[in-house]
Amino acid sequence: MRRQEIFTVPNFLGFYRIFAFPFILWFVLSGWETLFAVFLTLNLLTDVADGYIARRYDMVTEFGARLDSIADNLTYLLAFTGIYMFKLDDFMPHIVSFLVFAGLLLSSILLSLVKFRRFPSLHLYSFKIGGYIQGAFFIILFTVGFITPFYYFMITWGIIAAIEHITIQLIIPEMRSDAKGLYWVLKEKEGDRSKEDQNV
C-alpha cells in the first residue's frame, strides 16, 4: 500500500478516534459525564468531517474505509457505555426498542466477522444518514435531554438500516466498501446475471 493512501487527513481523523477511545472510556468509567459528552461529540464531528473530506477531495481508499469502520464501532461502544452509565433511567421505558437496535447492530458486526473475517465496511447511505441522526440525538440527549419522538425516529431508522446491512451481507460474496444500499446491490447482481446470460 502506498504511503499517500495511508497518510491522509481523513485517515488521521480516523486514527484520532481510535486513539481517543481509551481516554473517553476512562471518562465514562470515572463518572465524568461532561468530559465524556464533549469528547464523544468531538468523535462524532470528526467522523462527519473525515467522510466529507474523503469524498470531496477523492481520498476514498479501502484502508480508509476499514479504518473508519473500526473507529465507528468503537464510537458505538462508547455511546452505549455512556448511555448505560449516565442515561439508563431515561432509556428504561424504551429499553425493548433500544435492545432490538443494539442487537441488530451487533449481529451485523458478528456476521461480517464470521463470514468475511473482517469488520463490515459497506458504508451504506442508510447507515451514513443514521449516523448523523444518532449523533444529533446523542448531542441533544446530553444537552437538552431525552426527547421521545426524536428517539423513536432515530431508533426506527437505525433498525431499518441494520436490517438492510445484514441483508446485503447475506447476499454479497465478499465484503466491500462501495455498497450504497440494497437497491444498488440487487441492481448490480441483476446486471451481472444478464451478462452471464448473454455470454451463454
What does this structure look like?
Helix content is 80%, strand content 0%. The protein has 200 residues and is mostly helical. It folds into two domains: 1-86, no CATH class; 90-200, no CATH class. Helix 2 packs parallel to helix 4, helix 3 packs antiparallel against helix 4 (62-86) and helix 3 packs antiparallel against helix 7. The longest helix is centred in the middle third of the chain and has 25 residues, at 62-86. The N and C termini lie far apart (38 Å). The mean pLDDT is 90.
How would you sum up this structure in a few lines?
With 200 residues, the chain is mainly alpha-helical. The protein is 80% helix and 0% strand. The chain has helices at residues 3-6, 9-29, 33-56, 62-86, 88-91, 95-116, 125-141, 148-171, 182-199.
